[in-house]
Amino acid sequence: MQFLTSLVLAAFVGYAGSWYLGYIEGNFALLLLLATVVTGIYWLAERFYFLPQREAAAARLDEATAQRRSELTRMGIEKIDTDTAEARDKLLMQPWWLDWTAGLFPVIVVVFILRSFLFEPFKIPSGSMIPTLQIGDLILVNKFHYGVRLPVANIKLTEGTPVQRGDVMVFRFPPRPSQDYIKRVIGIPGDEVAYLNKKLTINGQPVASESLPDYFDESVMRYFKHQRENLPGKTHNLIIDNDRPAFIPGTDEFPFRDQCRYSVEGVVCKVPAGHYFMMGDNRDNSLDSRYWGFVPDANIVGKAFFVWMNFGNLKRIGAFD
């Protein structure tokens, strides 16, 4: 068992190391699921096989010690050195290969349940959601808001709350599903979304917005046009770079691309069933649905709702819309 456990642990370390060094494209959800299953098997083996064996060995030692004490007493020997506490502790001690597997199972299973079904932490790596989210924000994502899903397979078990325009959503990036993205939901199935000359229209109705004082983005040391936009039922802030053209360059081929019409003014898209149109709040610095298309329902990870830490700015902690 020691050799087998060494191989299992080496495989996990090798996978994580290769992922970290960029040799393979890792999948943390799969890694966590495998760790939960493997440590769970060891935990069951420890609970129902290895621990009873060690306890039986300790019981045999106690019985042998008692017999030896009884025999020496009958022989009239009063001073009896029968301190077997250290030997008993060694018999009951969990070996290293169980300590590193069964011993970790309770922690791993708690992390697995929390991350897979309740809340998952993410770090904001870019400025595409400024001013709502800043680079370095550590956020929490509600994994059950849109319905509980099986980890790895991502099969929906419950319906949950329907996706709403204006939600800040984490999803698997359609061109590269192993990578998580965060954007704001702009269009839901059936919507016609038009972003022309940096003005947003949904189903033929211009989305109301009001101007705010210019926004200073410390990440690039520049001022930008600042607006408060009122998507149906939800208000949020965004920034616009007037130096960028309305034209959308470098678009990809993607499913349902025929539902989009591109021009020098921007883009108009009809959102297909079971898909969503996403945009960043940093409108001119966001790689979003305008470039790579729609997000299928199967790619949804959860709803982002809370900044739990930003080590560069503790005032960032709190809920957001």
UniProtKB/TrEMBL annotation:
The active site is at residues 128, 183. Coiled coil: none annotated. Residues 98-309 form the Peptidase S26 domain. It is found in: Membrane. It is an enzyme of class 3 (hydrolase). GO terms for molecular function: serine-type endopeptidase activity; signal peptidase activity. Its main location: membrane. The chain crosses the membrane at residues 28-45, 97-118. It is a single-pass type II membrane protein. Pfam families: Peptidase_S26. Its EC number is 3.4.21.89. PROSITE patterns: SPASE_I_1 (PS00501), SPASE_I_2 (PS00760), SPASE_I_3 (PS00761). One of its GO terms (cellular component) is membrane. One of its GO terms (biological process) is signal peptide processing. It catalyses: Cleavage of hydrophobic, N-terminal signal or leader sequences from secreted and periplasmic proteins. Keywords: Hydrolase, Membrane, Protease, Transmembrane, Transmembrane helix. NCBIfam families: sigpep_I_bact. Belongs to the peptidase S26 family. This is Signal peptidase I. It comes from Limnohabitans radicicola. The gene is lepB.
